[in-house]
Amino acid sequence: MPNLLIRLCLLALILLQYGIVERANAAAPEVGACRQIPAGRDSDDRRVALVVGNAAYRHGLPALANPTNDASAVARTLSRLGFEVFLITDASDRQLQACLTRASERMSHAAIGLFYYSGHGIQVDDENYLVAVNARARDLGTGFVPVQPIVDEIQRRAAATLVFLDACRNNPLARRGLEGLSVSTGRGIQVVSSKAPIPKPASPQAHGLMVAYSTSPNSVAVDGDGDLSPFTDAFIHKVLSPGYSIQRVMSEVTSAVGEQTTWAQTPWMKSSLTSELKLDGEQTLEAARAVSQNWANLSLKLLWTHEGRQAALVAALKGLPADPSEATLKAFPDAYLAVFSAMHASLSKLPVNGLPYGDIRGDQVAVFRMLENGASSLELWSRSRQVLLRPVTEYPANEAHGARFSPDGTLLLSYGNGTVAGWDVATGVKRFETTVAHEAAGGLLGQRKWVFDVGFSPDGRFFYATATDKKILQILDARTGDVVEAFDSAGFAPIADVTQSPTVKYIGNDRLLLLLSSGQQPERPVIATYELKEHRLILIDHVPARSVMHFGYDPAGRYVALTVMPDNGFSGQADFMVWDIRSRKRILSAKGLVMDVSFDPTGRFMLASAGTSSTVYDLSDGKETSLAAIPSGFRAMPGYIASSTGLSPVAMPTGPWFSWDLPSGRALVDLAFSTLSPEQQARVARDRVSYIGND
């Protein structure tokens, strides 16, 4: 009896061990076996792939670290994408050909036929070969599988053919002294072309051929430090991106491999595909919006760099689906805003350095160019031609402050060192020069006379000047430069204890908008208007903060907008507030550091910009809304001049908005696309967002 129990236990142990071995063998790919892996999910079209990984070379050829892992990872990924996969690793030439025969039979009438190879590859007499594991250096009839017949066979059967060749290492046979064996694209794969018969018009080939190489011609790929090659690692991650076409996938793979290898390896692709192939289907609308937001943010950032408008347009248009309807534009408001901003941006590039503060009027730009001795030269430049029209005047070091064109562009004011000068734009002749700061300033300015700001009335007959003087605000005649009215601190005493120059804006020919401040804390800034004809000061409101970071206004005289800092200074979050001037009530309060506001000509909508982000408000209810819903245009960002040393702001002479001749909505998007080069249009078409249900 004990002997029987011992025999039964030994038998059970043997069976158990046999089962474990069988399960282990089933889990690992069998060397040289052609495994058929079913599609991991249903697909609207039939897809078949042959994946090969050769690493364990037998006859003195160097073994490779990654191909077996590469092939297994690619096979799993393609199965997830709805491919029926045939996988073979460490295959001889006969085993590879037999697996190709099985796979190609399944590729008949398939929508996509795919071939992925990782391993050695060489070129012999202008013919490209995959190197099987049984290859011998001195027997070219054994172990070498030509590439072109594989491509032709797949093309003959499938509508679209995708070929991926991660076979670009050094020629493994070169050291054997065999002449004629070379490395065409690194590991020896030359550019594969289509040799399939030209289809008849009645049965056109739907999509064509794409061949992707893991590195560019005449370059060598690297194995990397991980279990997968850099090319395969990038491919299996990028190809699973919903909504990405295979063209875009390969663009992303190229970037990823280049960055991972410090651009020692750059994948390369040749394609005759005639339409986009999206292996992982479409994105959801929510996912597409997230991608669109990223493109919009990039576009607005590009507007602030030397990349300029065209680069910004490319990024913005990628954030919109193809053929967008008006409803689509409302669904992707940030990307539409980015297109709008790029089309309306006033960014001028000039070949000068050191731009303090200037102005733009039509094609003319007034800028201060820094001279070698530290002085500033005020000059007129052409925006379109980027040429100097004429020098205007010079200021000693640290004395130039700004320039401003009159509304009709015939007069240019320059100010600094306590004076304001008026120049005839057509002739360059000085019309007048007026001293508006008679007394030396104290505090942060030291003992300097200073003009802070100037601004014209809408009709151009008068201009204001604020300065370090007892007369902190002066109104001057634009024809003669004579002072016609002056204000000191006592003039504002009924509503505010003013100890410094006010911030002033014209909101009509005879009306000023004022921000009155005191250097004595805890006094709060005051918003007020002044009727020039009636000599009447009207209080709007006390600002609920000590520090004002931004002062914006509606030139029609309806609204004033302020960005204020909390009493604890920059350690707190900024607040953005808007007042209705007529009702003297605050109508909007929001969090955020707004640095530019624009009002549409109707006075109903406002665009609040904070660097690279913007928000549109409907002032009838104070709520956020979509720019796509607004029939009239905004100036989406302030005018800027790009120089060799950076960007400098310039004043926009007609206030925070313009009446644009450009269209809006879908027509604006089409116009923006038409301004791109063919290469830029192709990039937009390849990368633009799409989603489920997007027509």
The total count of strands amounts to: 38
Low-pLDDT stretches: 1-28, 177-191, 193-206, 635-660
Rounded radius of gyration (Å): 36 Å
Largest sheet: 7 strands, mixed
Task: Briefly note the structural class of the backbone.
Answer: alpha+beta
The portion of residues forming beta strands comes to 25-35%
Strand order of the largest sheet: 1-3-2-4-8-10-11
Give the termini separation: 79 Å
Large-scale geometry = elongated
Fraction of residues in H or I helices: 10-25%
Number of helices: 12
Compute the average pLDDT. Answer: 79
Report on the structure:
- The protein is an alpha+beta fold and 695 residues long.
- Helix 7 runs parallel beside helix 10 (333-344), helix 8 runs antiparallel to helix 10 (333-344) and helix 8 (308-318) runs parallel beside helix 12 (678-687).
- It is elongated and about 100 Å long.
- A 7-stranded mixed β-sheet has the order 1-3-2-4-8-10-11, with helices on both faces.
- It contains 12 helices and 38 strands.
